[in-house]
Amino acid sequence: xxxxxxxxxxxxxxxxxxxxxxxxxxxxxxxxxxxxxxxxxxxxxxxxxxxxxxxxxxxxxxxxxxxxxxxxxxxxxxxxxxxxxxxxxxxxxxxxxxxxxxxxxxxxxxxxxxxxxxxxxxxxxxxxxxxxxxxxxxxxxxxxxxxxxxxxxxxxxxxxxxxxxxxxxxxxxxxxxxxxxxxxxxxxxxxxxxxxxxxxxxxxxxxxxxxxxxxxxxxxxxxxxxxxxxxxxxxxxxxxxxxxxxxxxxxxxxxxxxxxxxxxxxxxxxxxxxxxxxxxxxxxxxxxxxxxxxxxxxxxxxxxxxxxxxxxxxxxxxxxxxxxxxxxxxxxxxxxxxxxxxxxxxxxxxxxxxxxxxxxxxxxxx
Length: 366
Prior knowledge:
With 366 residues, the protein is mainly alpha-helical. It has eight helices and six strands. The protein has a four-stranded antiparallel beta sheet with strand order 3-4-6-5, covered by helices on one side.
């Protein structure tokens, strides 16, 4: 029959698992339905806020999942540490018990011999009632031996009591650790499912908008904003294609979070001007950076130092490249809502009204 604490552990794990399943089942259809029911005609008006909201949800879910995973790892580390301490105490008790056994054995043998053969040794007069000096000495020795034996037994009993107490504490500690770990693991599992659900809805939205990402069961890695930081692991201009999200403008890619923010802005722009934003350059690999640097001296960053090589910059056309045109003014006024801004240097030196950059902190603050 399981102990009360074991029953509690089972109940908590069952409850957390049920809660995770309910959250997954209840929330997923609503978002999936919202994605499926949108018609192409309503895309420009509807997807703009929806996509931005999904991106923020995905990034928030990823942050919460990361924090919960760290907490779980810390808890598991503490469990391992306490387990080592416990094992050390148990080993110390075992050594103490072995030492007590060595002391107790000869005393037990001597006292046992005295009582088993009273007539065959120097203590016979004492045991037969004689009160000679020899008997008194024998009585003292016996008293000493018996006292020593009792002391050893008492010390042994204390050691056993301490061991039983430690064993009970160990059992309690193990149960608490397992319960805490199970709760954290269930929380991590719930957060992971929520993160996967949001990213899946985001991928479905991108597919409806014509973004060519994979249609497998899992969300496309290249357009998953929770994986955007993975692109930072590669040198400027050497980011693999699998880590870059395609745009609606054919042939252009950006880092996932920047791409999703731009796609969202592009939808709002289409609603305003009736056409999507014109893009001449997005991510540039190192070879492209070198080519632009030599073809346009003074108008391109040193190869390997360009924000284009990080997948965080765009060069725009279609009117945006003309300073103070309606298209330029619209993006200047609305771009920061999506994380896109015109850097200060591009207003003057060198003057590049077509150049825009992405900063995730801008959207995080909104």
